[in-house]
Amino acid sequence: TDVPGVTVGHVTVWRDEPEGRGIARTGVTAILPGPTGTLFDRAAPAGAAVLNGAGELTGFLQVSEWGLIETPVYLTSTMAVGRGFDGAVAAACAADARVGVEDVVIPVVGECDDSWLNDARVVQVEAEDAARAVDAAAGGAVAEGCVGAGTGMICLGWKGGIGTASRVAPEAEATVGVLVLANFGAKRD
Questions:
Q1: CA-CA distance, 35 to 174, in Å (whole number)?
Q2: Mean pLDDT of 77-96
C-alpha cells in the first residue's frame, strides 16, 4: 500500500466445527491495483513469473501476454480457487455494469495449500468472500501474519502467512511494493 492507489483487504475464515463444517483456517486476500470501478477501462500493468513453484494462478496467460490485469489479485486456499474466481467475476460485474456485456474480464486468483491447518475437503471459502475482501481493502498498514489467505499457511515447519515490504527506487521515480503469502519448504531444507 506504499504504492499510490494500491489497497489490500482480507477476509479470514476461522471455524471450529468438528461435527459441522470442520476446522477452517483459511481466507481470501485481495490486492487492488486501483479502484475496482476503473479497472475495466484502465487495466493495471502487471507481470508474472514462475520460480520453483506448483501453485495455480488464473489469468496467468493474460498477464504474461498483455502485461495487464483487469481485476484485483485474489489469494486463497488451493481448493477454493474456483469459488474465488466466481466471487471475482461477481465483484467485477458489481463494480461495472459493462463487464460481461461489452467485454469479459479474466480474474487473477492465486492459491496456496493450507491443508495442514485447514480442512481442505470442505471448501471453507465462499464466493462472496472475494467481494468481502475487496470491500475491506484499504490503504495504510496492511494486516500481516495469520490473516486472510495467510491464515492456514506453514513455512519451513513454522507458522507462515502474509508479509509485506516496499522500497523507494528514486532512479526510477517509483515505489515497489511486495505482498508475500509465505507457505513453503521443510525445516530440514
A1: 20
A2: 96
